[in-house]
Amino acid sequence: MAKNEHLNLEDRCTIATMLKNRESFRSIGTAIGKDPTTISKEVRNHLVFSQTGCLGHAYNNCIHRRGCKEAWICEDCKHTRLASRCWACGQCNTFCDKYVPDACAKLLKPPYVCNGCPDKHHSCTLEKRLYVAKTAQDEYKSVLSECRTGLSLSEEEVSHLDSVVSPLIFQGQSLHHICANNKDSVMISESTAYRLVDSGLITARNIDLPRKVRFSRRKKKSIFKVDRSCRIGRTYEDFLAFKAANPDLPITEMDSVEGKKGGKVLLTIHFVKAECMLAFLRDTNDSQSVLNVFDKLYLELGPDVFIKLMPVLLGDNGSEFSNPTKIEMDRQGNQRTHVFYCDPSAPYQKGSAERNHEFIRCFIPKGKSMDGYTQAHIRHMMNHINSYGRPELGDKCPYEMMEFLYGDKILGLLGCTRIDPNLVTLNNSVFKEV
Questions:
Q1: Shortest CA distance to 233 belongs to which of 319, 139, 134?
Q2: Is residue 67, in this structure, part of any structural domain at all?
Q3: What is the domain-level CATH number for residue 282?
Q4: Cα(first)–Cα(last) distance of the chain, in Å?
Q5: How far from 274 is each of 98, 225, 400, 416, CA to CA, in Å?
Q6: Mean pLDDT value across residues 297-303
Q7: What percent of the chain clears pLDDT 70, i.e. is strictly above it?
Q8: Residue 216 or 317, more confident
């Protein structure tokens, strides 16, 4: 029996095959030399959700799907052949006001998947849960890679370490001395403490360490991620699948715009459909500052308006977006949005926001410090940008599109004001008006 060894692709193929043959977890565990609980955790951790129907029937998970007599739900129905039986149409769940979601009760107990279900292809139109060996192996490799990057510390722990370590560094103490004499307060290794300083996550800097400045800076930049497995289930492929399943939901892109390294930074929130962008000034480029912005917007807009405006958020792989659960959930644990990530080194996947950043660079060139600006300066700058007409919008400006889509009341809550077209200015002279 293989002990203390991770499952490999061959093991996962065996699991998938035996699940298809309706074998128990105990039988599968015996076959590959693992405990049944290991197989159970493996299957539940790597479920693949598939919204597909069955032979001759579209996906439909409404509890009333059997014997439903609803007809002509869509006034302008493009499927006249199915108009008299809407339950057979793939759009039934989206447009029917009597829709009540249903789920298969068999999935609540082992084996938790539909791999060996005889009804999967013939009569079941509910959401399928499958175990796919290749997908499970890819997710495992992704987690393994994420676990070896960044620091395994929460923001609260970093804040505590900062309060202990930084004052002692300013007294001239070395990190070795600090770690050796404060084991109860600084429960990290000396190398981790050096990475904290090198990453700029605490107040003390490399220049505050007398011997550190003698050595050359490493080329590889340390990345601090709050949730090292944040990309699982939130990749760009997952985003495309979610978008295909929910084509009517508007997409919002988020990104950071830096000035001078280590200074203040902008969080931009870009509404793709209207080409309208908001920008929020932050003191540091960390995940807590991003959470503070979304929590403030959620409080000011209210849950209904927030969910209507930003049901889907697409960002890059920056460490400031590495706490997706806190962005997705409010403080009561209710889901308020869905967060997804672009592929690494693929800014074109959120090209709409990247193009709009060119306007910001007309005001704040790359490398220029933002420390002298306030949120009032940034809001005034964005009002000029959002009042500038765009050919792709039929020469309308983003403000007009947002007003058309959501109304002027929401624009007021967002702090947006329209600038007269002849007064729009795209250079830093507008900052003198604030």
A1: 139
A2: no
A3: 3.30.420.10
A4: 72
A5: 32, 31, 8, 14
A6: 93
A7: 92
A8: 317
174 and 280 both lie in a single domain: no
Number of domains in the chain: 3
Statement to judge: residues 183 and 52 lie in one domain: no
Beta bridge partners of 257: 266
Let me know whether 290 and 375 are in one domain. yes
- Per-residue pLDDT band for 75 (boundaries 50, 70, 90) equals low
Q: CA 164 to CA 178: how far, in whole Å?
A: 9
Q: For the full predicted model, state whether its pTM sits above 0.70.
A: no
**Same domain? 160 vs 123:** no
DSSP state of 103: -
Mean of all residue pLDDT scores within the chain: 88
Q: Indicate whether 168 and 280 sit together in one domain.
A: no
The CB density around residue 13, as the number of other CB atoms within 10 Å, is 14
Which helix (H) or strand (E) segment holds residue 258: the answer is: strand 251-258
Question: DSSP class of residue 101?
Answer: B
For 404, other C-beta atoms within 10 Å of its C-beta total 11
Alpha-carbon distances of 339 from 326, 411, 423, rounded to whole Å: 10, 23, 37
